[in-house]
Write a structure and sequence with these properties.
The protein has 600 residues and is an alpha/beta fold. 28% of the residues lie in helices and 20% in strands. It contains 16 helices and 30 strands. Helix 10 (316-321) links the parallel strand 20 and strand 21. The protein is globular and about 80 Å long. The protein starts with a strand and ends in a 6-residue tail after the last helix. The relative contact order is 0.17. Belongs to the GMC oxidoreductase family. Pfam families: GMC_oxred_C, GMC_oxred_N. It comes from Nicotiana tabacum. FAD binds at residues 97-98, 143, 256, 534-535, 563, 574-575.
Length: 600
């Protein structure tokens, strides 16, 4: 227990001390040099508020005093940050991010606050929630660094077959992954819950054990993490430290309204970007007229098709319905959306469980991945007893069938939960995720306001193969929960376990269904308890919206580089490959434009 002046420090004093540490940038990616903390503003001097932007430049060589950029990147997320850092080595780059910085945000920076960041639905939150038409609550990142700021941190590469199918140069891929890993990836200190899952996976035959590896291999493994040994998160935003600070401008709270086009030629030509700053004032950034200059959209699987449609590229009828001038009619924009469905099982224990997010994974031949989290529901001062990955407050506690997950239902659950001892939520979750879902959905515009979410549909389990895989996955989870390693870990005798299970039912915590030999019952369980692990992708597919080089079909000087281009989610968790893609495409663009002079 902390001691101040020889006496035990009350919780209020401890919270004040934490606040002081945050004020001194303890949660930012600081450097210790000569015994001094380096504030993030010193390390990233090129990051500014959007309101500071000026389109005029005394050093402009275009004759009209307007500042232009060789590349304008829309979206400072998982792909956008490494892409900007790489392109800035040789060219001027403007990176526009609608959210703020992650560095002094305790909800982003500390693993212990993972669930709080997702539960925060305020306008300034790093997480923007949305409710798909399926009834499943979900989140989009709204912060520099994108999804790496709000995810569970697990880092694992895509398999060789994925790389080949994507048409990527394997040599450059294998150079690009380590560029990420050397800067922000760590080997985890395996938590007890994660060890129990690892040993149980091996006990039930998910083998061999592949040890600690970034590689995607059948069996059980321990992967990397973007949380360091102190539980501090390292995000894609930190990759900007590798940028050329003289050639990079990063604007935060810069919400892009649309891409501007010159439509006087045979094909529309991207010429600039119109964006709104934190005060609501509008600005326009101009693209250089130099050959090779481009606007690159890296706003994610929801944001990128959304921006294209708001800019006039998409299904003609849908655009005209909202009086958006049609720049290019493309019926495939926003189509083919997919989200990997997740189902979770709660395993109660009779003692404290160390907090952990995903560290170990079972890669099965049944087409499902098995992962785990623990310890996020047992704190008495956790906001409204929020239970992390499976939390009712963010629509993640799958005790209510999707279509019934209204805000009113969640509020009612929250109120009733106040009377339940928080000790009941000691334990953790075993997660079962469908690897390559065949079910497909779409996004469509609701308004022309860039701040509003579009309408999003994933059609979970609409394909029968997805449902069969979920049933197989739940049966694997049942075997894990009954394995000797888990029963040893929980240290519950039968009487105690039965008591915990009965209390958990009363608390509406999701448990293993009782009739797992009944396929029809398990199919209904899968449908009723489906949630998300935020691995949605698609909407700007290769061959339909973009070419293999990621240039938008039918338009000059415009590319899309992010997870919206994926047919499948890479590896067990996509963040490694999305960051790699940003670096990979940055190097590839420089080499195409400069040849050997790229020097990378």
């Amino acid at each position: 227990m902390a001691v101040v002046g020889g006496a035990a420090a009350p919780p209020l004093i401890l919270k004040l001390l934490l606040s002081l540490l945050l004020c001194f940038n303890y949660s930012s990616p600081t450097l210790i040099q000569a015994g001094k903390w380096e504030p993030w503003e010193d390390r990233y001097p090129f990051i500014r508020e959007a309101s500071s932007f000026s389109s005029s430049s005394s050093s402009s060589n275009n004759g009209n005093n307007i500042k232009t950029y060789d590349y304008i990147i829309v979206g400072g997320g998982t792909a956008g940050c490494p892409l900007a850092a790489t392109l800035s080595q040789k060219f001027s780059v403007l990176l526009l991010e609608r959210g703020g910085v992650p560095f002094a945000n305790a909800n982003v920076s500390f693993m212990q606050n993972f669930h709080i960041a997702l539960a925060d639905t305020s306008p300034s939150s790093a997480s923007q929630y949305f409710l798909s038409t399926d009834g499943v609550f979900n989140s989009r990142a709204r912060v520099l660094g994108g999804g790496t700021c709000i995810n569970a941190g697990f880092y694992t590469r895509a398999g060789p077959s994925y790389i080949k199918k994507a048409g990527w140069d394997s040599k450059l891929v294998n150079e690009s992954y380590p560029w990420i890993e050397k800067q922000i990836v760590h080997k985890p200190n395996l938590a007890p819950w994660q060890r129990a899952v690892r040993d149980s996976l091996l006990e039930i035959g998910i083998s061999p054990f592949n040890g600690f590896t970034y590689d995607h291999i059948y069996g059980t493994k321990v992967g990397g993490t973007i949380f360091d040994r102190f539980g501090r998160r390292h995000t894609a935003a930190e990759l900007l430290a590798s940028a050329n600070p003289k050639k990079l401008d990063v604007l935060v709270h810069a919400t892009v309204q649309k891409i501007d086009f010159d439509t006087s030629g045979k094909k529309p030509r991207a010429v600039g970007v119109i964006f709104k700053d934190e005060n609501g004032n509008q600005h326009k950034a101009f693209l250089s007229k130099r050959k090779g200059s481009e606007i690159i959209v890296s706003s994610g699987a929801i944001g990128s098709p959304h921006i294209l449609m708001l800019s006039g590229i998409g299904p003609k009828a849908e655009l005209e319905k909202l009086n958006i001038p049609v720049v290019l009619d493309n019926k495939f924009v926003g189509q083919g959306m997919s989200d990997n469905p997740l189902n979770t099982i709660f395993v109660p224990t009779n003692r404290h469980v160390e907090q952990s997010l995903i560290q170990t994974v079972g890669i099965t031949k049944e087409g499902v991945y098995i992962e785990a989290s623990s310890g996020f529901g047992q704190s008495g001062d956790s906001i409204r007893c929020n239970h992390g990955v499976a939390s009712a407050e963010i629509g993640q506690l799958s005790t209510i069938p999707p279509k019934q997950r209204t805000f009113e239902a969640i509020e009612a659950y929250r109120r009733s939960k106040k009377n339940i001892p928080h000790e009941l939520f000691r334990g953790g979750f075993i997660l079962e995720k469908i690897a390559t879902p065949l079910s497909r959905g779409n996004i469509s515009l609701v308004t022309t306001n860039a701040d509003d979410n579009p309408s999003i549909t994933f059609n979970y389990f609409s394909h029968p193969r997805d449902l069969k895989r979920c049933v197989d996955g739940i049966r694997i989870v049942e075997k894990i929960a009954k394995s000797k390693h888990f029963t040893n870990y929980t240290q519950c005798d039968k009487e105690t376990l039965d008591k915990l299970l009965n209390m958990s039912v009363q608390a509406n915590v999701n448990l293993i269904p009782k009739h797992t030999n009944n396929t029809q019952s398990l199919e209904q369980f899968c449908k009723d308890t489906v949630i998300t692990i935020w691995h949605y992708h698609g909407g700007c597919h290769v061959g339909k919206v973009i070419a293999p080089d990621y240039r938008v079909l039918g338009v000059h000087r415009l590319r899309v580089i992010d997870g919206s281009t994926f047919e499948e989610s890479p590896g067990t968790n996509p963040q490694a490959t999305v960051m790699m893609m940003g670096r990979y495409m940055g190097v590839k663009i420089l080499r195409e434009r400069l040849g050997r002079a790229a020097g990378l």
